[in-house]
Amino acid sequence: MSHAHTNRLIHETSPYLLQHAHNPVDWFTWGPEAFAKARTENKPVLLSIGYSACHWCHVMEHESFENARIAALMNEHFVSIKVDREERPDLDHIYQSVVQLLSGQGGWPLTMFLTPEQEPFYGGTYFPPEERYGRAGFPRVLTSVAEAYHRRPDDISKSIQQIRDGLAKLSTLEATPGDLSPDLLTNAARTLGQNFDMVHGGFGTQPKFPNPSNVACLLRYWHASGNENFLHMAKLALRKMASGGIYDHLGGGFHRYSVDDRWLVPHFEMMLYDNAQLLPLYLHMYQITHETFYADVARETLTYLLREMRHPEGGFYATQDADSEGEEGKFFAWTKPEVDGLLGDAARLFARYYDVTSAGNWEHGKNILHLTVSMEQLAKMFNQPQDEVAASITAGKATLFAVREQRIKPFRDEKILTSWNGLLLSGLALAANVLGDASALHAVHDTIAFIQRHMWRDGLLLSVYKDGQAKLNGYLDDYAFLAAALLDAFEATFELAYFAFAQQLAQTMLAEFWDEAQGGFFFTGTQHETLIERSKSVYDQAIPSGTSVATTTLLRLYHYTGTAAYLQHAEQVLRLLRRHLEQQPFGVGSLISTLDFSLHKPQEIVVIGALGAADTQALLQAIHQRYIPNKILIQIDPQRLTTTLEALPLLRDVLAGKSQVDGKATVYVCHNFACSLPMTEPEALTALLARHTA
After folding, report:
1. Strand partners for 82
2. Environment class of residue 677 by beta-carbon count within 10 Å: exposed (0-12), middle (13-18) or buried (19+)?
3. Fewest Cβ atoms closer than 10 Å to its Cβ: which of 264, 363, 464, 521?
4. DSSP structure class, residue 11
5. For 465, phi and psi rounded to 5 degrees?
6. What is the secondary structure of 126-176 as a DSSP string?
């Protein structure tokens, strides 16, 4: 296929950048060439940041970047740089903070105007091609910014200084007076509760995001306090999401967010990181309630991930688009005639269950499948046995899924990100434990091997892999999420190599990212290119903050090894961020969970027995069926006791004088170096663990 235009982006591996390779815009990638040209020609830089699954990024490309007249304005007045935020979260962190300082809100596409020295002076998000939605038209923005840059340099300098001051303030962390006490957890839980939607579940109104870190906080606070209200909130959020259109009822998995407050109409993109975080939440709710609804959602989400997002060698792809054939949601929506024609006599039952109507529950007479009644209610409505109704619904789902598989699927961004794979590895390890799913365990092994083979080079992590090429120095999130995942993989497999790799990553993380002057973690390492700000990742975004995950990982490693430096660094972070925990808990949900781990200390659960033995597996299964948010778990083969304790020295004190009872697999549950009596029966262990749950 011939194209009228081809620019530099044609040489990139990022699908998002390649999508813009035939724009008439003279795009550059971020790098010295672009800024040298800007300096030589005395032009400002137009920085555009987005990602391949972003609907409004596609809209702005079609409306403006494919428009020859607008492209001509860009080429005449600016040096234009296109960035994939998933490849360069460092740039997105900085310039997203700037647009939030300027306007109070951010998002993608991010449109930022810089000097040739990378200094931002104006920006926004989506700009339409002409004035609408209360937004200035992009051509007018371009001409106004270019004019201001050349004719009002004093105004530009003033704006730059104000932005610099704001960025510096955001990156400065100072310890505040006060203890790190359980009162902080209580205050945080109450704040989350005040923002909770008690009708539809979740937080706030539309658009409504899953907020997995904050739902996890509700569960932790319920566990610590015994206050059932917080368990009810978490249950309501998870059930409503999985009942709504944000969940794919045919193929499993969750869309990015809901445009309404009822979870009905999603923004149809599907992100690896959302599903990676929601998978363990549904598994935790199953551990708490033992209701099959939550296990089924977890299984279906796992099935989606393994079917649609897995690289053949291991590792998981980043995203699936919101659009197919140029239309948002086309792949997922149904008309009633389609359903009637496919299901025949069973269509009436199916349509009532999933709210499929002739008028449609979405636009243009289309329907988004979502649950309107329970299976029990449906059976009563149709006066049929519940098992027959359930079988009919299952068959109907299979029929529609098979037909849907013949449709043109949304575009899939097949780059592999270390950080997001780390998030998913933790969920996979939990699925292997809770569901006993062998495919999840295989994916754990394969993905770790993939990262070690392709993305671990000369003792450092790389961040992105695509088309056989790994590149870009790892960010804090890459190290923190992968180290946490390796500890989770260790507790699923008890392979000491995973524990050793986690420790190696933690040591590198401290060497590369720790701020020796103020404390806390920078987002970029010491070997990263120099940017206008070396930012720190404090607040949760769509993913947990790297700082909170790094801190929790250090605490976990301390409780395995007794290495004082791990504890000292972790406690310093919590002191530095005490103000955030107290004043802005909604934005630091993952850090609240870190504080919970720090204050309550983990239970140390040690199973002594051969891993493959039935009695050992029975004890481990009893553990995996309980929600225990703060624990470290280790299985020790009596034949390898010395080797294991050399790798985990703190357990030497815990296990002093302890051994198997009568040659049977034996478990000890310890807390603050006080241990239970030895147990060999799963029932006794279950009873003990139940007493530890408030």
Report:
1. 48
2. exposed
3. 363
4. G
5. -130, 130
6. ---SSSBTTB--HHHHHHHHHHHHHH-HHHHHHHHHHHHHHHHHHH-----
Which pLDDT belongs to residue 641? 77
Alpha-carbon distance of 295 to 291, in angstroms, equals 7
* 45-50: strand order across its sheet: 79-84, 45-50, 110-114, 120-124
Q: Residue 286: CB partners within 8 Å, gap ≥ 6?
A: 292, 294, 295, 298, 434
Under a CB-based contact definition with an 8 Å cutoff, are residues 639 and 646 in contact?
Answer: no
Fill in the DSSP letter of residue 334.
B
Q: What tens digit of pLDDT does each residue of 94-127 get?
A: 999 999 999 888 899 999 999 999 999 999 999 9
Per-residue model confidence (pLDDT) at position 567: 97
Q: Determine the length of the chain.
A: 694
- 585 and 611 assigned to the same domain: no
Q: Can you tell me which residue has the tokens 């749950």? A: 693
pLDDT of residue 694: 43
| Cis preceding linkage at 109, omega within 30 | yes
Angle at which helix 292-308 crosses helix 438-454, to 10 degrees, equals 40
Neighbours of 180 (CB within 10 A): 16
Where would I find the H helices in 87-128? 89-103
Q: Residue 632 phi/psi, 5° resolution?
A: -125, 140
Determine, yes or no, domain membership for 247: yes
623 and 591 both lie in a single domain: no
Burial (Cβ within 10 Å: 0-12, 13-18, ≥19) of residue 390: middle
Give SS3 for 681: coil
Do 627 and 656 lie in one domain? The reply is yes
**3-state SS assignment for residue 310:** strand
Q: CB under 8 Å to 52, separation ≥6 — which residues?
A: 14, 15, 16, 19, 84, 86, 318, 319, 321, 411, 413
Q: How far apart are CA 106 and CA 159, in angstroms?
A: 18
Question: Who contacts 139 (Cβ-Cβ below 8 Å, separation ≥6)?
Answer: 69, 70, 73, 129, 130
* Count of Cβ atoms closer than 10 Å to residue 362 Cβ: 15
Domain that residue 82 falls in = 8-171
Residues 88 and 122 in one domain: yes
One DSSP character per residue, 448-501 reads: HHHHHHHSEETTEEEEEEETTEEEEE--HHHHHHHHHHHHHHHHHH--HHHHHH
Q: What is the C-alpha separation between 181 and 174, in angstroms, rounded?
A: 18
Residues 536 and 618 grouped into a single domain: no
Q: Which residues of 99-123 are buried (b: 16+ CB within 10 A; e: fewer)?
A: bebbeeebebbbbbbbbbebbbbbb
| Parallel, antiparallel or unpaired: strands 469-473 and 460-466 | antiparallel
What is the number of domains present in the chain?
4
Nearest Cα neighbor of 428 from 410, 444, 417 is 444
Checking 347-354 for CB contacts under 8 A at 24+ apart, the result is 347/396, 349/378, 349/382, 349/389, 349/392, 349/393, 349/396, 350/392, 350/393, 350/396, 352/378, 352/381, 352/382, 353/378, 353/393, 354/249
Considering the domain architecture, whether residues 527 and 660 belong to the same structural domain is answered as no
| Tens digits of residue pLDDT in 191-229 | 999 999 999 999 998 899 999 999 999 999 999 999 999
- End-to-end Cα, the chain, rounded Å: 64
- C-alpha closest to that of 542 among 28, 102, 104, 107: 107
